[in-house]
Amino acid sequence: MLPIEAFIPEIISTLTNDNRLVLQAEPGAGKSTLVPLRLLQADIFSGKKIIMLEPRRVAAKSIATYLAKQLGESVGERVGYQIRNEQRVSSNTRLEIVTEGVLTRRLQADPELSDVALIIFDEFHERSIHADLALMLSFEVQQAYRDDLKLLVMSATIDTELLSNYLDGAPRLSCPGKTYPVEIEYIGKASRYLADHVLSALRHAFTLQSDGDVLVFLPGQADIQRCIQACQELEQSNVELLPLYGGLPLSEQEKVLSKSASASRRVIFATNIAETSLTIAGITMVIDSGLEKRLNYDVKSGLSRLDTVMISKASATQRAGRAGRLQAGHCLRLWRESEHHNLSDFQPEEITTTDLSDLALELSAWGVTQYKDANWLTPPPMQHFSVACQLNHSLGLVDAQNKVLSAGQRALQLGVSPRLASMLLRCETLISQQLACFLAAILSERDIVVQANTSDICERVLALIEFVQDRTRAAKAYRLHRAATEQAVKLAKSFAHKLGISLKSEAINLVDIQTLVPTLLLHAFPDRAAQKRPQGDNRYLLANGRGVTLRDGDPLQGQAYLIVCDVDGKNKDGLVFLSCAIEKSTLLEHLTPYLNEAVQYQLDSKKEAIQGRQQVKYHALVLKEQNLSQIPKEAFAQCVKDILTSEGLGLLNWSAKSHAWLARAKWLSEQLNTFPQISESSLIAQLDTWLLPYLTGVNTIKQLKQLDIFNLLQATLTWEQQQQLEAQAPEFYVTPSDKRVAIRYDEHQGPTVSVVLQEMFGQLTSPTLANGQVAVRFELLSPAKRPIQTTSDLSSFWQTSYFEVAKEMRGRYPKHRWPDKPLEEKPGRSIKPRGK
C-alpha cells in the first residue's frame, strides 16, 4: 500500500470542510497517481469534474494512461488528458489531466469553471510562470465566483507555509514517502570536460551495482548527445544508451519510461524533465551532474540567455530520490560535499527570471492592467512587467492603459507568444498567412536544421514547405532534424486550423518567401531590426541598442539590415541563431509612425567647425542621414551645448587660471556644505545658466574660444561665495618670507604647496583651510627644487624629521643653510650669505 493511502480520508475530509489544501508528499508517496484516483471515486466529487494540472506533456499522458488502466478503461473515458495539439477526452471524462497553458485558456474562456469541482496543481514546486498564473486565476475564481470550487496544491518539496498564507490560511498536510535508502557519494570534478567526468562516474557506478538502470542528470540536449557519444564503449557491454529531454518526440519519451522484461541494462541521459512526475522503470542508480539550464531575461536588452547553473538543494534531493524507488540505491554527485552546503534551498521562481509579455497579456485579458492589482504569489521585478506591457502595446495587443484589445483577445487563442501572435494576425493575404504559420512553427520549437551554417530563416521556411510535399527528399537536401521538423509541421497545421486556412502551399515560391517573410517578422520583432555596423561584415546593432554578431561564414554577412528572431543573450554581442535580410525601404514603409527626425551636431576637430547631420532614426538605428550645408545661427548655442554635454568642456578656452579656479571650487564644495556644489559635471548640467546666455553673437568656434571663461566661472558665485572661496580655498599661500606660492588643489592629496624648505623658516605650524578642517600639505624642496620631505604637520616636522633632513642635506648642499634652530632663522634664500 502506498503511504498516501492512509491519508486519503483526511484529504477528503479537509476538502469537504475547507475548499483549499496544501499537500506535501515525499517521493514515492503516490500523490500523483493515487490522490486523483481516490478523489475521483469519493462521494464528494461523485458525478463532478476534476482537472489536474501537470507541468510536462509526457507526464500528463503517462499519468492519464496509468490511471485509466487502474480503472480498467482506455484513456479518454473517465480519465483523459489535453496537451498542446493533442487531447483524448469524451463526454464521460471526469478527471482531465492538462498542461499549464490549457488550464489558463479554459479559465479565460469560462472564468466560473461551471463544470469543474476541483483543480489539482501537481508538482507545484517547479513554479513555472504558467502554474503561478493558473493558481492566481483559480484562487480569484474561487473568491469571486465559485466559493464551492476546491483547490489542491501538491508537491514533494514545497514551501507549505508560503502557499498556505497565500491561500488565506489553507490547511497543510504532510505525508511520508515510500523510498528505499539512497547512499550518496560526492566524487567532485575529475575532469574539466563533463562527458569525460560522466564516463568515469559510470564506470565507478558499474562497480557498485551489477544490475539496475542508471539515470544520469545533465543540463541540456547538447550535453546529453556529447555524453552518449563519449560513452559508446559501454554499448559493447550490453548497455543501452538512451536520451530523455523535452524536445524529444513524445513517442520516444514514452519508450524510455517503460522497460521490457528482456531489455539490456539501460543508461538514461536526461535533463531535469526526469526529476519529478515521470516514473522511469528500473532505476537504481543516479549520477547527478548538479547542473541545469536556466533561462534568464535581461530587461535592458530585451533578450534572454540560457545559462548553465548549479541546481538547488531541493532539486538535488528530488534527483537522488529517483534511485530509491525500487530498492536501496546509489547517487553519485559530481560535486564536492563542501559545495553542496552553498547551494540555494530552492531554484528561483520562473516568474522572476523570464520574459513576462505572455503573462502580462493574460492578465490584461483577465482585467488586471496594473502591477499593483495582481495577487502575486511571488512578485516579479516591476520593471520586467512594465517592459512586457510596453512590448504588448507596440505589438498592437493592448492599448496605452494596458487594456486588452480585440487583437490581444484573438492572440491568446492562438497559443503562442504575443510576438508570434501579432505576426499571425496581421497577415493580409493567404500566402502571407501560410508563411506566418510556418514561421511561427519554426520559432516555437528547436531548430529544424542540423548543424546549420546559416541563420537565414527563409531557408528553413523553404525547407519546411518542401518537407510537407516530399519528406524524404527535403530531409536530405536541407539536413533536417526529422523529429523537430515533424513537430514543426504539426504546429504549422495547428496554427492554420486556428486561422481557418489550408496549408496547401504549392503556390509559394522562394521569391514570395524572401519578399514576405521580412515584413512578417518585423510585425513580431520590431525591436529586433538590426543595422550592420561599420566595423566588420558580421557585427550588427539592434534597434534596442544591443549588439549582435553573425557566425563567421554566414551567407547573410554583409547585408545592410536584418530582422533578428533568435539570439544568444549571454555575451555583449550575442550570436544570432535565426534572422533574415530586410530592405531599408521595407523598414521605412512599415515603421513610419515610429520614426524620429533629429539633427545631430558634432565637432570637426581638424576644421574647428561644427557639422550638422539630419537623421531619420528608428530607436538606435539611423535609417537616413544627410549633412547640413549650413548651421543656423540660432542653433549654434544648442550645438555647443550638445557637444559640451557629450564630450566635456574641453572645447572652451581654459586658461591655467580657469583650471585652478575650478579645482579650488570643486575641492571646497566637497569640504563645506555651505558652499555650492561645483564640478565639471555640475557645470555641464547648468550650461543654460552660466554659458549659453553669453553666446549671443557667437557663431564660430573661433569666437567661442575668445570668451573669457574665468569671468564666466566667477559669475556662477555670489559675491559672498566668492569671498568664501578666497578665504577658505585661496589661490596662493604667502610664505614667512612674504613670497606668494600657488596652492595646488589635488583631487587625491588635497591642497598642496611646493616650496624650498628655507622659505618656511619661522612657520611654526601648518596653516588650515575650509574653516580649519584641512591642513595644507607642504612639499618641501631642496635647493635643486626636488622634494625632500612632505608633511601636513610643520610643528612635528621642525621638532623631529627636520634634523635628519638637515644632516643629510648639509653633505649634499654645504653652501646652503641648514641651521640647528630653524624656527629662529630668517626665512628666505637657501644659500648662505658670503663669509658664513
From TrEMBL:
Positions of region (Disordered): 814-836
Presence of the UniProt keyword Zinc in the record: no
All residue ranges annotated as the Helicase C-terminal domain in the record: 201-367
Domain of life of the organism encoding this protein: Bacteria
This protein's UniProt keywords: ATP-binding, Helicase, Hydrolase, Nucleotide-binding
Gene3D superfamilies per the UniProt record, alphabetical: 1.20.120.1080, P-loop containing nucleotide triphosphate hydrolases (3.40.50.300)
Ranges annotated as biased composition (Basic and acidic residues): 814-828
MF term (GO), any: helicase activity
CDD domains for this protein: DEXHc_HrpB (cd17990), SF2_C_RHA (cd18791)
Span of domain Helicase ATP-binding: 12-176
UniProt xrefs under InterPro entries: DEAD/DEAH_box_helicase_dom, Helicase-assoc_dom, Helicase_ATP-bd, Helicase_C-like, HrpB, HrpB_DEXH, P-loop_NTPase, RNA_helicase_ATP-dep_HrpB_C
The protein's name: ATP-dependent helicase HrpB
Species, as recorded: Pseudoalteromonas maricaloris
